Structures are given as C-alpha cells and as structure tokens.
Amino acid sequence: MVDKPKNRKRAGTESVLQNAPKQKKEKKLPCKACGQRTHGLSRCFYAFPELRYDGFIPNKKVEKNMQQILMDNSELENEIEAIRNEIEERKPFE
Q1: Which pLDDT tens digit goes with each residue over 27-77?
Q2: pTM of the predicted model as reported, rounded to 2 decimal places
C-alpha cells in the first residue's frame, strides 16, 4: 500500500482585499559616494572611515571607484564634509 502525500495547500485568507491596489516596492537609491545600494551617504564606511567597525576590510575596487567619483564631483565632497561636521557636533565630549 502506497501512502499518498498530504495536501499542504494554505487555506485562503480574507486579510488582503481582492480589489486593493498593489503596493510598489520602493527602490533604494545607491550611495552617492561608493555606489552600493545597502546604505545611504551618511552611513558610508568608504566616505567616513571613522564609522568603520573593527575588522572591516575595504574593497579596493569600491575605494578606487569612490576616489574617482570624488574627483569628478566637488559638490559631493562638500556634502561629505558637512555630514562629517554634523557627526562631530553630535558626539559627546570625551
């Protein structure tokens, strides 16, 4: 006698309205400095080396790309400096 597999289909739910509009996923914009989509400029370990955690190993290709972007865009360099100053102001006195 062969056992039949049990049906594992989920029961229908009424928690989602059938005619409700679908929500679109918000696309993350890449970091202006390094181009990665995992963070914004103010949390970039390449633009702000002082934010790096112990044991962080920078990617040489990303560093080289960021240096090229900074050479081409002086406004970005000013924005990074403004963020750096803001971070310094928020730090507690040591």
Answers
A1: 778 899 998 888 999 999 999 998 999 999 999 999 999 989 888 988 999
A2: 0.64
* Cβ partners under 8 Å of residue 56, min gap 6: 45
| Angle (CA) 76 81 87, round 5° | 125
User: Three-state SS across the chain?
Assistant: CCCCCCCCCCCCCCCCCCCCCCCCCCCCCCCCCCCCCCCCHHHCCCCCHHHCCCCCCCCHHHHHHHHHHHHHCHHHHHHHHHHHHHHHHHCCCC
Residue found under tokens 């918000």: 26
